[in-house]
Amino acid sequence: MIFATNIKTETSKNKIAAFFNTNKSILQWSIDQEDIDCVLRIISENLNAGQIIEMLNFLDFDCKEL
Questions:
Q1: Does the domain made of 2-65 have the CATH classification 1.20.1440?
Q2: How far, in Å, CA of 57 to CA of 51, rounded?
Q3: Which pTM does this prediction carry?
Q4: Is 6:38 a contact under the CB 8 Å cutoff?
Q5: CA 66, CA 64: separation in Å to the nearest integer?
Q6: Which of 21, 23, 28, 57 could potentially form a cystine with 43 if both were Cys, beta carbons 3.0 to 4.6 Å apart?
Q7: 1, 65 contact by CB (below 8 A)
Q8: Please, what is the end-to-end C-alpha distance for the chain in angstroms?
Q9: Is 42 exposed, middle or buried (0-12, 13-18, 19+ CB in 10 A)?
Q10: Do the beta carbons of residue 16 and residue 59 sit within 8 Å?
Q11: Is 1 strand, coil or helix?
């Protein structure tokens, strides 16, 4: 799954890292903070795009599926 986000800083990245790295449903994730859309890529067998968006909104980040 690929998303546009507002995760622009290392502090923000560390905030989601703490959350994603402890979530066993997320197999792999990466974020390209140099891209204008701060593109987040997530591999998960159990979660859908809506659930990822809800997680990021809960952490006070904007997120939309690309």
A1: no
A2: 10
A3: 0.91
A4: yes
A5: 6
A6: 28
A7: yes
A8: 8
A9: buried
A10: yes
A11: coil
